[in-house]
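Sequence in, structure out. Go.
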Amino acid sequence: MTDVEGEVDSLSVDFAAATETPLLLVNAYADARNAREEAADRTKRLGAVEAACEAALFDAMEKLNLRSVQHARGRFTLNDLAWASVADEDKAREWAEAAMPELLMLNRQRLSAVVRQFLRGERDAMPPGVDYSVSRKISWRRT
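Output:
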């Protein structure tokens, strides 16, 4: 049994019996809510630590020119993606009509592929009216 399962079991209430004594339900509710709020706070703090570690690992791997690292805990792979966002619909549509008519439906996935090609140096310019945001993540395939 995990710590969480043990904690949940300790918060269990005999609801049939507790309906006769509302104070038991008040205590059960307060305990459960406090436990959930503490867990959410801990999750938030752990998320911040995880994000900082991920950014540092990404930077270190990038600095060493590594795309992945094999470790006893699994394979850690750089996953550097970019997604397009259309800042000026008219300019983007005009470009698509001339350069890539298949994008006239402005398929965001395909447009994101065009942005990634530009970022890799495979295209000379970004489509007009298109911005992008990047996500720098580590993929971890556990062993």
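Check: The longest strand covers residues 74-86. The longest helix spans residues 22-63.
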